[in-house]
Amino acid sequence: MTKSTMLNAVLTGKAVPFGRPDTLSAIGKHPVDAAIAIGPAGLEGDEQADRRNHGGPDKAIHHYPFDHYAAWRGDLPAPCPLLESVGAFGENFSTLGLTEEMVCVGDIFRIGTATVQVSQGRQPCWKLNHRFGVTDMARRVQSTGRTGWYYRVLEPGIVAAGGGIALVERPLPDWPLARILRAFYHDTGDLPTLAGIAELEPLATGWRTLARRRVESGRVEDWSNRLGE
Questions:
Q1: Are 164 and 2 contacting, i.e. CB atoms less than 8 angstroms apart?
Q2: Residue by residue, what is the 3-state secondary structure of 132-196?
Q3: Residues β-bridged to residue 115
Q4: Residue 223 CA to chain centroid, in angstroms?
Q5: Which helix or strand (DSSP H or E) is residue 38 part of?
Q6: Is the pLDDT of residue 2 over 80?
Q7: Cβ neighbours of 172 (radius 10 Å)
Q8: CA angle 30, 38, 162 (to 5 degrees)
Q9: Residue 124 contacts by C-beta under 8 Å, 6 or more apart in sequence?
Q10: Rounded Cα–Cα distance for residues 113 and 104 (Å)
Q11: CA 4, CA 218: separation in Å to the nearest integer?
């Protein structure tokens, strides 16, 4: 199996004061012109300020489809300068031609000389509200399913903008990210689907635990603190 697209941009960022007192964030990512190394922690020189909720082996790299930018320009209440170029959502990888409907959890991609695996979708947080100046931006990202996704690094390597992204293995073709996102954020009482999600071995442990907890408790967790509401 080989399906490929092009990596339009590779982006990194540094942690800086952001949003709330005593809070740092590296959501401001900027394109890197030269080739860059990928290791288990992500891109060389990239930072994640909140290591509890960002970064780590299952969230080493964030990929956001540039395909969604046009829809956001139409949806937001006022023109947003952030949407004029890549990096608005704090992404490390930007492409055209891959979306949450097309990408499955567990997909393995060859990107440059590195091999990565889709580990989970993004859970948007309040920092997007501050980034865009839109009070409910995090909820908008969640409700639309335009979240992007994370990779874990299976084999370190080198990547560069303009290089290819090739799908080399798809172990779970019945589990596109969009299906998982719908179960988490829309069809929240779909216990059979949630039970299936809890058993997806390539899915990040935190998301499997979340699905299992929903099934066992019959309750949906409170999103208000994460979404900044």
A1: no
A2: HCCCCHHHHHHHHCCCCEEEEEEECEEECCCCEEEEEECCCCCCEHHHHHHHHHCCCCCHHHHHH
A3: 110, 155
A4: 18
A5: strand 36-39
A6: no
A7: 15
A8: 60
A9: 137, 138, 139, 141, 142, 147, 226, 227
A10: 21
A11: 40
Instruction: Report the SS3 class of residue 91.
Output: coil
Bridge partner list, 164: 6
CB 184 within 8 A of CB 217: no
Residue type at 46 in one-letter notation: D
The band of 53, judged by pLDDT with boundaries at 50, 70 and 90, is low
37: helix, strand or coil: strand
Provide the terminal-to-terminal Cα distance of the chain, rounded to the nearest Å.
43
Task: Print burial letters for 102-123: b (CB count within 10 Å at least 16), e (below 16).
Answer: bbbbbbbbbbbebbbbbbbbbb
Q: Which residues contact 83 (CB under 8 A, 6 or more apart)?
A: 69, 72, 73, 76
Retrieve residue 123's tokens: 């859970």
Residue 200: pLDDT band (50, 70, 90) is very high
pLDDT in tens, 138-168: 999 999 999 999 999 999 999 999 999 999 9
